[in-house]
Amino acid sequence: MITDGHAYGRNILIEEMDPRALLNSGSVSPLSMVQGVEDGVDGVIFVGYHARIGSQDAILEHTWSDERVANLWINGELYGEIGLNAAVCGHFGVPVIMISGDQTACAESSALLGQIETVTVKQASGRMAAECLPPALAQEKIQEAAATAVMRLEQRAGPQTLSLATPVTMAIDFVQSEMADRAALLPGARRSGRRVEYIAPDILTIYSAFRAALALARI
What we know:
Blueprint: E1 2-3, E2 23-24, E3 44-49, E4 69-74, E5 77-78, H1 81-91, E6 96-102, H2 103-113, E7 117-124, E8 130-132, H3 135-154, E9 168-174, H4 177-183, E10 190-192, E11 195-200, H5 203-217
């Protein structure tokens, strides 16, 4: 199962896929970047992920939308897309077993998820600058790490699932006050300045509330 999680989910050339694979394509899907994790998945691999917004030496660091989100906290801890999507996977008892990205994204995933396989395909020296591996070499390293991650999973030696204490709290700092004005229209939300807070019984509800708040905040 492959999920196209970038932008509107229409980036992967299905005609070039392995015939054994299925593709989740298009938007809006209920679980977005991890659509399909609820359907009998044993482990998840994140390919081409970015570090959370505000990270130093990280290519195109962002948390869903760099135009709207200045910071995101889940249960009082800073989260990016890596943690947010890993938590959704964890809700279904599925571990994230590998990630590829720049050195900062890989370090973020290791700090949050533990002994996960990581593939650093570029060394970022700023938001828009990096030393990049040639595509053929990057692909080879990703393939090797994925094989190792799957082997560890089969041997029950892979990372644990990300499990959050409940109820789950979320706080979003928006880039502009007008965005917070709009996001605060979400039923159940509480606002303080540019920050909008929300509490829910589980991460799935938080995930939906986060996406709804960002949709409302769009200017």
